[in-house]
Amino acid sequence: MTDYDVLRVFCAPNGGYGNELGVVREGSVLPDREDRQDLAAKLGFGETVFVDDPERGIIDVYTPTRRLSFADHSCVGVAWLLDVPELVLPAGEVGTRLDGEFTWIEARAEWAPPCVFHRYATAAEVDDLPVPPAGDWIYAWAWEDEPAGRIRARGFPGRGDGVDEIEATAAPALLLTERLGRALNITQGAGSQILTAPQPYGWVEIGGRVFLER
C-alpha cells in the first residue's frame, strides 16, 4: 500500500472533530490519474491529496469518485503540512499562511460547488434537524451570535451514497461569507470550527485547526 498521512482539518479547540484527509506526500509513486482515483476510492476519505511538488505546492485532489479542481479542507490540511506560501491546483493558485493554531488559505467563491442555503431562526433548530432526503446539497445555518459573527451550521450533501452529513467542509462557508460580506466563526457538524474572512477583489480567507492523526 502507498504510504500516506491522515490529517483532521477544521478541528475544535480541544483537537476533536474535524474532517479526515488522506495525503500522499510522494505523489510521483502514482503518476497516473486512474491509479490515483483507485487509491482514493480504496482509502475512502472524503478527499485524498497527492503532492506532486512539495516546494512549489503543486497538489492533485480526489474524492472516492472524482478529481477536484479545488478542495477547501484539502488545501487547509496540506498548507499546514507543507508550510508553503501557496498551493497550485487546476482552479488556480491558493495563498496560504500559518497564524498560531490556525492555518489559512485564500480562495474564490466561484471555485466552490453550488448548494442550497436554509436559514433557521435558532441554533437549536439546526441541531434538531433530521437528515433530509437525497436531492440538493443543503447547508442549514442559524446565527448563534450575529453581532459576533458566530454561526451554527450543518451540511447535508444529498448524494444518496450513505454520506448523510459532512462534518466539516468550508465550501458552503466560502459562499456564505461572500453572500453576507463579513467574517464568520462557524461551528459545523458535531463540533468542528471554521473561520472565514472576506478579502479584497473577490477573495475569501478560510481558516481552521489541523491535527496529524497518523
UniProtKB/TrEMBL annotation:
Protein name: PhzF family phenazine biosynthesis protein
Lineage, highest ranks first: Bacteria, Bacillati, Actinomycetota, Actinomycetes, Kitasatosporales
